[in-house]
Amino acid sequence: MFERNIETELRKWKNWIGRKVLMVRGARQVGKTSVVRKFGQENFDQVVEINLEKKDLLKAFAGVESIVDFEKRVQLLMGKRLIDVETLLFIDEIQESKEILELLRFFAEERPALHVIVAGSLLEAKMSGSWNIPVGRVDYMYMYPMTFFEYLQAKGDRASYEYLRQIRLGDEIKSLAILQKKYQEYVTIGGMPEVVSNFVRSGDYGETQLICAKLQTACAEDVEKYATGSEKKYLGLVMEAAPLIAGTLYKYENFGGSMYKSREMADALKKLEQVMLLRQIKAINFTNLPLQYKEKRAKKMICLDTGLVNFASQNYTNLLKGEYKGRIMEQVVGQTLLAKGLRQKTELAYWSRDRAEGSAEVDFAWSWNNKIIGLEVKPGNTREMKSLFSMIDRGGKQILPLRVSWDNLGMEKYTHSGKKYEIMSVPFYLLERWEDLT
What's the CA gap between 12 and 297, in Å, rounded? Predict the structure, then answer.
């Protein structure tokens, strides 16, 4: 069973005095069910799991009115009692039951010592005005595909994992070619747990493509579950087109080469963003906090996973060549940065000057410790960073600049137009440690 980063946060939640019902959110097949089961087995005397996608269980809990009523049904159906502290109650696919969803607030009020975790892939998409998550009664965690460090652990490569965890700024990194090759392998197959599990077992890229095909089909079938008749064509188009433009900018009008209008495409993209199949990265053009997003500007597409992007693009052999190299590395950088948001979603942007001021665009930007991180992705040999210099000129000490590339870790000094700049260089395979390296 794979070790996932979220497990550390789950253990903190278990022991937190102010603990509430926990809702684990994430797209299908990112490992929510497996990680909660593993956590339960390792940390509780008893796990009571209720999967509401099973029609018999959904029917058995229909019309549940109270915590007492719920517990009686659990005891009758499963022969188990919900014991404070000792039991983990895990309700999976909770979006199938409005009644149990609304019951969560009463767990918090009436059984605060009972550990309750719920999960659901399609919850936000199925919510309407009559569906309400109990505000203030629920904690949230978010799951994403596996990161590179999680991938190394899944492969049993503990040596590489521990080595990369211990590197500090100023250290000389050894075995660069080996680390780069391992990261390229990760970029190729992605971080979907089923794909990783199969690749660890077989090492067969062909089999990973078959699993990616299955996952794509499952995602498409999910669209059918929460789309109305008129929405299906728009959602279907986004499902097909989004991986083909991952890591690039797009506009709603004529999205994917269609003749559809902005409003329809905006709604479709928002819905797929809600179920965490993609993220729309908005533009900013200022260098002060709080960040102010330019809603009408083009957005950058970051899809769920690089493996699925490669499969949709049918590109497994030339990942790091030509135009695709830039796109896939922006995708994996965006995916990695988003995966840091286990307790709160990471709000990513990209920085761009107004058109009248000339062309300048920094690939990613976000707020951190009262500063704005500006990050440039450089998958090739170029160190041209006029856009990042321009952002620094605008924001001064407010900007913390990063360059992520295949180069070594360290502080780099540049001179441009008579001005001096210092920028941290972070190799791709250390990106998820940007925070503690800074």
Answer: 40
